[in-house]
Automatic annotation (TrEMBL):
The keyword NAD is annotated on this UniProt entry: no
Cofactor(s) demanded: ATP
Membrane-crossing residue ranges in chain numbering: none
Gene source species: Deinococcus gobiensis (strain DSM 21396 / JCM 16679 / CGMCC 1.7299 / I-0)
Biochemical pathway: Carotenoid biosynthesis; phytoene biosynthesis
Family affiliation: Belongs to the phytoene/squalene synthase family.
Keyword Cell cycle: no
Name of the protein in its database record: Phytoene synthase, CrtB
Record SUPFAM superfamilies: Terpenoid synthases
GO biological process: carotenoid biosynthetic process
Domain of life: Bacteria
Gene Ontology molecular functions: geranylgeranyl diphosphate synthase activity; squalene synthase [NAD(P)H] activity
């Protein structure tokens, strides 16, 4: 599931040692199942998301269902101190999607980014092992938020086709834009200015999150650094395309991702020096 749904995350996960890698994949698969339910919609989506949350709780209680994801998550939760509260926040974030949540302010969007991605840092850090206590977790949260904001900036056109707008109303208004402007799909100077500033916000979150990577233990440092660098590369491609996220999807090629591995390794060397 990890390899199929997130090649960037999968690349980073390959750097973990075997048992940690299996736990990271279990966490990703459980999160992905919830996300797929919320994205899929349908008349019974509330019931299916509720069933997913019950399955997660059962796995943490040591009573997994027969589904392989449930059994894998139960094993991961038994082996590592992954907090159930992080999954509870994810559940709330997915419910925001089901309710068609309107994002009035940047604070609203930041909360959403925390719930659907930032808290994944709370799940991965205990698997990695880390120093620095809560301060390190705060940095892991920032890194997850940066990745989610990257997704949002990449997928504006795709989300519009699903009837979703994550760009906050106050941010649109600041640049003289509204939903109708987005639906026209025209990359105007005002739209570019807004995307430029939101990209800068994402990069600021990446910088905060990256500062916590040296506090992880062992090979987890390279795993997370690789995923972060590859994900931030999506912003590079978006910028290079003139912020056109209506007619194309920003991405990082497999070759570019592999080239980022030595960059991530060198970056970690400079931290330790």
């Amino acid at each position: 599931m990890t390899r199929e749904h997130s090649k960037t995350f999968y690349l980073g996960s390959r750097c973990f040692p075997g048992r940690q890698r299996a736990a990271v994949w279990a966490v990703y698969a459980a999160c992905r199942e919830g996300d797929d339910i919320a994205d899929g919609g349908g008349p019974d989506v509330d019931a299916r998301l509720g069933d997913w949350w019950s399955r997660v709780q059962g796995a943490f209680a040591g009573r997994p269902g027969e589904h392989p994801t449930d059994r894998a998550l139960a094993w991961a939760a038994r082996e590592y101190p992954i907090p159930l509260g992080a999954f509870a926040e994810l559940h709330e974030g997915l419910r925001m999607d089901l309710r068609g949540h309107n994002y009035a302010s940047m604070d609203d969007l930041t909360l959403y980014c925390r719930r659907v991605a930032g808290v994944v840092g709370f799940m991965i850090a205990p698997i990695s092992g880390y120093e620095g206590g809560e301060a390190t977790l705060d940095k892991a949260l920032r890194l997850g938020q940066a990745m989610q904001l990257t997704n949002i900036l990449r997928d504006v056109g795709e989300d519009l086709s699903l009837g979703r707008v994550y760009l906050p109303a106050e941010v649109l208004d600041r640049y003289g834009l509204c939903r109708a402007d987005l639906e026209r799909g025209v990359v105007t100077p005002e739209y570019c200015a807004m995307l430029r500033d939101l990209t800068a916000q994402a990069r600021a979150w990446y910088a905060e999150g990256r500062a916590g990577i040296p506090l992880l233990r062992g090979r987890a440092r390279l795993a997370v650094a690789t995923a972060a660098r590859a994900y931030e590369g999506i912003l590079d491609d978006l910028e290079a395309a003139g912020y056109d996220n209506f007619n194309r999807r920003a991405y990082v090629s497999g070759r570019r991702k592999l080239m980022m591995l030595p960059q991530a390794w060198w970056e970690l060397r400079s931290f330790s020096a």
